[in-house]
Amino acid sequence: MKPLTFLLALTLAACGAAVGQGAQAPTKTWGYEVVQSFPHDRAAFTQGLVYLDGHLYEGTGQPGASSIRKVKLETGEVVQKRDIPAPFFGEGIVNWKDRLLEITWQHQVGFVFDIKTFELKSQFQYRGEGWGLTQDGQRIIMSDGTAALRFLDPETLQETSRIQVSDQGRPVQLLNELEWVKGEVWANVWQTERIARIDPKTGVVVGWIDLAGLLNPVDRMGATPDVLNGIAYDPAKDRVFVTGKWWPKLYEIRLVEKPPN
């Protein structure tokens, strides 16, 4: 009986360990408070958003309607603009030194502009689709609509490494517009009202931001792509700005921790 008892004890212990391993605490979720709202061009199909030196830089999409633009935060006025010719579909943008970089959706080509004049300086290529861009001060970080984040050398714009993003061990697909915030990569998840907070070393989602209800339903256009997309961070004043495609407003928000379920 002793060997049988011992075997039973081992079996029960293994089952208990398996249950314990599977019962992970849910990933922490934050809600939001609106600090203030600003006008936003409803014709802007927002793909990329950057806050820099008191202005917003915005990349917009759609063939024949893609552009890069410099925008007054307080009024939404477009003070500088360069159109991106069809057939290119503009996607994410990011600043690097005296340059503004933009990628395109399916043409596997990116553009490098002078950030002051918007003059086209050069082009670069990559494989697959281009969705979002940000930077951590050392590398350009790019999303491609999958669960991957690619890291690019900011001078050569060649990929040097990549990570897979996951939550509770499951891949997080459709990563879109990106922003670097206090050592984390924040990523819009396409066609949701959630932002993933990602550890750039491991790819693990360390938190979610739930922005459900941010845009009043009466302000929506009702089109399928009329969704949250666009994150910008002002590190000097610790301000977070968010908007969406064809949204008439841009919001400064403050995160509010939600109690665990």
Instruction: Characterize the quaternary organization of these chains.
Output: single chain
Number of DSSP strand runs: 22
The total number of structural domains is: 1
CATH architecture descriptor name: 7 Propeller
In this structure, how is the largest beta sheet organized?
Answer: 8 strands, mixed
Shape: globular
- Radius of gyration based on Cα positions: 21 Å
Question: Could you characterize the architecture of this molecule?
Answer:
With 261 residues, this protein is mainly beta. The chain has one domain: Methylamine Dehydrogenase, Chain H (7 Propeller). Helix content is 8%, strand content 50%. The chain has 1 helix and 22 strands. The strands form 5 sheets. It has an 8-stranded mixed beta sheet, with no helix packed on it. The N and C termini lie far apart (45 Å). The N terminus is likely disordered.
Quick synopsis:
This protein is mainly beta and 261 residues long.
Key terms for this structure?
261 residues, mainly beta, Methylamine Dehydrogenase, Chain H, eight-stranded mixed sheet, 1 helix, 22 strands, globular, disordered N terminus
Secondary structure blueprint with pairings:
Layout: H1 2-22, E1 29-39, E2 46-52, E3 55-60, E4 67-72, E5 78-83, E6 90-96, E7 99-104, E8 109-114, E9 120-125, E10 132-135, E11 140-143, E12 148-152, E13 159-164, E14 166-167, E15 170-171, E16 175-181, E17 184-189, E18 194-198, E19 205-210, E20 228-234, E21 239-244, E22 249-257
Parallel strand pairs: 1-19
Antiparallel strand pairs: 1-22, 2-3, 3-4, 4-5, 6-7, 7-8, 8-9, 10-11, 11-12, 12-13, 14-15, 16-17, 17-18, 18-19, 20-21, 21-22
